Every structure is written in C-alpha cells, then in structure tokens.
C-alpha cells in the first residue's frame, strides 16, 4: 500500500473494506489519520499533521538559466550527499563538486563542498563537540551492562570549564580472557585523526591460536611519560597488581615516555623491543648498512645499536616464561590496522566501534572453535606439522636415558643436544615457544613418542575455549542512556601546528617504493666503482674524499690528469 494511488470513483463492496484500506495505507506510510466525518453514508479522512498547500503557480520565465545559485547552502547539500558519504567516507571535495554539477547542473565552491561533507559526517557519526558532553553517560551505561569492567574518565578544570583529558576502558571479559593466555603484552600508541587530535594507547595479548587478544584501550591527549604511566597504572591494577605483572613480558616500539614509565612501575620487568623499529632507527643513520663493518661505516649507528642490551631484541637472550619467540610487535600493529578507519571519528563513536569489534570477535572465536575437532589450536597444529616434516633431515644419536645428540644429515657440523626429560633443545625453540622443534621431534620419532603430548597447555583447544568463554554484553543507544548528574565535558584545546595538518604517518625509508614496475635494490650488496669494495658506492668512497678531488673521482685519476696537463704545457713553444 506504500505506492498505492487513490483514484476518484473507486468502488468498495462494504464500508469495512474501505476502512481496512485506509488503515493499511496509514500503517504502511507511517502516518496518523483523523476521521473528520464517519457515518452510514459519508466518510472524510485527513492527516493529523498540519500541511501547507500550494495555491498559485507562475512558472513562465524569460531569464536564462544560471550556473551559480545563491539558494544552495552547505546544510541543504549535506542532506543530498549524506548517502554518498555513508558509502564512501573518504570522498574528496572535488568529487562532491563534480557529482553536484552532473546531477543538478549547478556549481558549488570548494569550501561549500567541504562544509557539506563535514555536516554529513556529523549526521552519520555524530558531532565531535557534543559527544564529549555525554562521556559520563556513556561510561555509566558501559559499566551498567558490563559489571566488573574498568572505565575511567579523567578531566581537568580550565578556566571554569571541565575539559577532557583521558578515557580508559578495560572490559571484564578482556580481563578474564587474558588469564588463560601467555604472560606477554604488546603496548603501542596511534595518533587520532579527528577534529581534536589525541592518541590511542592499546595493550594487546596473544591467545592460544597465536592471534591478538586486545586487553585495554585508552584515549589520551598526547603520548608522553605521564599519559603512559596513567595507562599502565590502571592496566597493572586490572591484571592483578604489581606482584603478578612483574612476571609478565612487555613488548613495545620504544615509544615516547613508555620505557621510563614502565621502569618506574615495574623496575625489573622483562621487556622486548620490536626489531623492525630498531632496524628503522639504525638504518636512518646507517643507510643500507653492512653488519660486519657497522662501526667502520658509521660510529653513531654502532653506538645506537650497542647500547640496547641483547636481551631486549635477540632470541638467544629471551627468557622462556612467555612461551613466545616473536621479534616484532605485530599483535598491536594488527589491532591498530583494524581501527584505522575509526581513528578519524568522534570519541564516543570511536570507543563504540572498538567495543563492537571486540564483542563480535569474542563471539566469532567462541563459535569457530566449537566446530574444530582437534585438541590443539589450528595455527599451532599447522606449525607443529611443518616442524614434523623437517625431521627427515636430522639423525638422533642416543647418549643415555633420554639425552640425544641430533646432527644434520648433510652437514655434520650442525648439531644440537636434546633432553626429553627437561623438554629442552640447545636451539632453544622448544623452550621459547612451548612447541617441540624438528630436532626434538626427530628424537621422539626414534623413541616412538607422540610429539603432540609435549605441546604446552597454552595451545590446547580447552584453553582457547576458556579464553573466549566470557561474553562482552551489548549496550543501548545514546537515546536510552541515563542522564548522570555530572557536568558537561568540553573537548580538549587542540594545539595548532604550523603548516598543513598531517593526516598520514611518516613512512620509513624501506616503505617508500617509487616505481612498482621496477625491482628494488633492497637486499643487494653495494659495490663501489672506484675501489671495487662492497658496502658503499662511489659517492662515499674513502679513496675519493681526498682534498682537491672531485666527488666520484679517485686520487689516482686526479694525479694522472695533473701530470698530463703539465706535459702538455712543457711541450708548447
């Protein structure tokens, strides 16, 4: 009945039929109606809402069509492009101008296009400023629906106004889930691209299937020692206190102020640094680098690398408690990549999309593992089978009890010592990961032992089910939130930096690939055209840096050219 057209002269068999038709029409169109007259012979019905009627039209024009109309404003335009912005939030201003010109044959300015886009995004995601006012209401709703969670809002008084400073969330389900995981946590920070800026701090663990498990997240004003300390204090309290967290391993990218804050709260805690970031920091000073001659090539780069203790970045010095041998902080980087599109949205929309993602992830993992038939998590089982395939290259030799020497089939100098009773191998892979290596599996096959029984319990299916047995409960929309008695929170005062606002992070040197059609020289050793030595090119050749020589010209070439010019001068009459 939505598209039904009423026509004069339509016949109905009974009065009840027309009543049913009117009710169906009103219900399908969502309109309240009023029976002005309703007796045995007549019926008059009108809409309850008052309407305006067009009485006179004079549509004859003698003027020509204009391209720029003053009646068009950004508010009207935002309603017309709202659907397009919803489908494509990154739509550019030039695309909006072209779309309006093609559809309406009118022109709009660049500023109007951007204003209309911002208004449309406010209608979709909400207002940046207005959402700060409801942070107390949102925190109250979050705690009411997820009891046992930790939600902290920190504000400050600036000129009599309550101004936002920080917001911390650690859901009860995330706390309980981490108790079944390995004691390793990745810490990272990412900048927010919204109207008022800020930083998003995250703490992420690893579940039994070697995938990320977000624990807590926090919005702060800036990434420094004070903000990291506030975040870590709350995180440590949620995970059991300093005594329990002192046995954890924290992995980071050496962010600003993080190391100092962590040393103050947990002085002797084990820390790991992401080797990719160590490489990028070192290669900034060293260039492509030559590991054998780092000190000879660049003293500053050598000093930068040597001051970092190997226990932070070398597997040979890692402790065995975390049962994780990762060298990179991919667990937090993966979580940040999921939140990439949300970091430009208003604060409550940002926090809600994070919570919604976690709720769906917990439910999906809980459902997927229920249909898995094995006793070991899928990714761990795949890694175990790859190690089993490598056992064909290793030959075990019995020493006594369950102590073996394992040597490579084709390289007798490649040997390892395996002790089954101690669950150890001198390659340290078994101790670091809790998964038997190919050397130990070769011994187990020799002893006719099932290697799966030696996999650490962190990787069992039962442990994974225990991890995601908790539920992140849904919450109501903003219209259903209780109004708290706290004052409205104002957005922080964003410091305006000189120049055009930066929307993208600064890429590392290895990420800048200029031409996709040509193969890069990454990984190839440089060779100088002057001295024929590896590790540098002619620009940085030591033989070409003597005084009085051109860059790229050797001292021998310069001397030869000088002698030739003197001979030519003497031969002149």
UniProtKB/TrEMBL annotation:
Residues 553-565 have a biased composition (Low complexity). Keywords: Metal-binding, Zinc, Zinc-finger. Residues 540-552 have a biased composition (Polar residues). Residues 416-448 form the SWIM-type domain. The keyword tRNA processing does not apply. It comes from the Eukaryota. One of its GO terms (molecular function) is zinc ion binding. Transmembrane segments: none annotated. The keyword Transit peptide does not apply. Residues 535-573 are annotated as: Disordered. InterPro entries: MULE_transposase_dom (IPR018289), Transposase_MuDR (IPR004332), Znf_PMZ (IPR006564), Znf_SWIM (IPR007527). This is Uncharacterized protein LOC106758320.
